[in-house]
Every structure is written in C-alpha cells, then in structure tokens.
C-alpha cells in the first residue's frame, strides 16, 4: 500500500509499504477513505524528530470502511467507521472512568506516556498511522466508532480528534451559558472550541494573527482580534478578563526566539542525545500560555488544548497562585464526548459549521506539499484532508 512516512525534519514522503494484517482477534483492517493532517502532526514534522524513526507512518485522523475483521472485533466487514486517535481497551481501570488517553492496557511505560496513539512517535508506541491506504485498528471492538452512510466523510471525520479535543477544551474551561471565553489560536482546534462555546451560549473572543483564520471564525459569530488583544478583551469584560481562556496553540506559539533556536538545535542532535535533552530539559514556546495567564480573570480557568512537551518550561507560579487560577489539560478522551457530538454532526442545520472548515483537499500522493503548505500557513490553509483513493 501507499502511505505517508516520516523521513526527517520537515521531510515526509509517500512510499510503498507492507499492507497491515490482523494481529489480534479484536483488530480490524480499514480501507481509508479520508485522513487529515493535524496541527499535532506538525510537531513530528518540526520538533519531535528525535522520537521518530525513518519510515514511520504518520497520521491520526482517519475514517474508512472495514475490509477485514478479527473474530472478537464485534464489527462486520463493510461497516463505515471513524477511528479515534487514542488506542484504548475500554475495560481497564482508566477506561472505565472515561480516561481512555490513560488506558492501562496500551500505556507506553517505556517513556512514561499515556495510551498509545496512532502515528505518533516512540513516545506513544510507534503505532503505524492512518495517512495510508489501509490501517490496522487495535482494540477495534471498543475503539472504532460506527457511523451512518448518508453524510459525506467530512461530517464525520473530525470525530477522530478535532471535535472531541475542542469539546473537552470547552468542558475543561467550565464554560456555562452567559460566561465569557477567550481562545488563543484559530487553527482547527481553536475554530471548533470557539464554535462549540458559542453554541453553548458563551460570549467568545478569539486571538490569531492570521486574517483568514479570523475571517473563518467571524463567519460563526466569534469576535476576533490579532495578536495584541489582551487589553481590548479585558475592557470588554468589565476590566476583569474573561471567565476562562483556552490555549489552542501549544508548543508552536510564536514570539520566543530563544526557544525556537532550542527546538532547531535539538532537531539537529543525534536521536539518542536529542531524546534525552527533550525529556529532561525540553522547552516549549510559551507565548500563548503566558497570554492566557495574563488575560484570564482572577478565579478563572485556563484550559490547555494545545500540545506541550517540555519538561523544563518556566511557569509563572506567582501569577497563577495569586490570581487563584485553575488549570486543566490533557489529550482528549474521545469516547467520553462522542455522544454529545454525534447529534450535532448529523444535524441537518450543521450547527458547528462542518461545511465551512476544510480548506484543502488533495490525493495522498500530494501529502508532502500539503504538509509544507500547512506548516507555513500558506494559501489560507487551515485544514487539509487527504484522499488515499484518488
């Protein structure tokens, strides 16, 4: 089969690799009909190279049709399924509490990490990802989400990651009807976090330097600002700041030349050395997080949806403690949120605006060019969907 493979920093290529096979009775094999490039994939493309191996198949936003099913998968061939990015058993202590990203069956204990993830480096199990013609799905009897056949892929695909991550970000922010919320970053997660919060009755402000991203959010009733907005938003919230702030940017925030240089240096080190540096002295670009701490009202909540990976990040604990700020974060526990999201996805009125999200579609073979376009934020690129069958 053909698959998108990691070959080095800022270098992916589409290669012919062996077809996946059923390894366990709870596995299924799907023919991938749609797969997306996620902002988290750019961390592999740019920062997390020391944890990647040449030839790794990437991608964790995937859906398709089951073509082969294990004897205990409880799923028949021909079912249309969405594949959540975490791989979880569904029955361990963590899964029974809805914490599927901490699944004790698939935890990557070698690196002290949570549940294994599709296509996401040694840190999360080096499991082949879904930017490919076919995908093996472990623990499919719990993991795979069966969906209907009437709606196009793009109405369901983002149940794999984007929508549950955004929903959890809003839930962790504790947003209620009538509350105010600020969102840092209007990439895919920020777009839907803002839309979900507005759908739930919050007043939403969003900050992003890219005019095309602001324009997309504004089409869904979001008040947007460029990078210099803290004082403006504070003025709109009676001088206090919003009740909650979502950081949907994470380690890719701009405005930190020292940390940017550190990322570049780590990427050039031999893998074993780079891994050790990242695990013990890793730094993130923290511009969005610092902005969130500054902006949120006293007694408010910060919800981190953007991915962070540093172990030596300097955090302003005095400000957090003095302002009595609550902070919640973590990978999305996808299955805990699907019941809330599926009716919205299938609603004919499209309340979350799924018809206004995908900016670029391309065959799988064009993935390298699409990664570059997405990483450089060129051509108004906000979300890329790849079609392995075209």
Under CATH, the homologous superfamily of the largest domain reads: Medium-chain alcohol dehydrogenases, catalytic domain
Report mean pLDDT, rounded to a whole number: 91
The SS-based structural class is alpha/beta
- Going by CATH, the architecture of the largest domain would be Alpha-Beta Complex
Q: What overall geometry do the principal axes of the alpha carbons give?
A: globular
The major beta sheet can be summarized as:
7 strands, mixed
Distance between the termini: 14 Å
Proportion of residues in β-strands: 15-25%
User: What number of domains?
Assistant: 2
Overall CATH class of the largest domain: Alpha Beta
Oligomer: single chain
**Helical stretch tally:** 13
Q: In angstroms, what is the radius of gyration?
A: 20 Å
Strand and helix order = EEEHEEEHEHHEHEHEHEHHHEHEHEHE
Give the beta-strand count: 15
Helicity range: 25-40%
CATH topology of the largest domain: Quinone Oxidoreductase, Chain A, domain 1
Low-confidence stretches: 253-263
Family: Belongs to the zinc-containing alcohol dehydrogenase family.
Protein name: Alcohol dehydrogenase catalytic domain-containing protein
Keywords: Metal-binding, Oxidoreductase, Zinc
Cofactor: Zn(2+)
What does this structure look like?
With 390 residues, this protein is α/β, with parallel strands linked by helices. The protein folds into two domains: 215 residues, Medium-chain alcohol dehydrogenases, catalytic domain (Quinone Oxidoreductase, Chain A, domain 1); 167 residues, NAD(P)-binding Rossmann-like Domain (Rossmann fold, 3-Layer(aba) Sandwich). It has 13 helices and 15 strands. The strands form three sheets. Strands 3, 4, 5, 6, 7, 14 and 15 form a seven-stranded mixed beta sheet that branches. Strands 10-9-8-11-12-13 form a six-stranded parallel beta sheet, with helices on both faces. A two-stranded antiparallel sheet has the order 1-2. Helix 4 crosses helix 5. About 3% of the residues have low confidence.
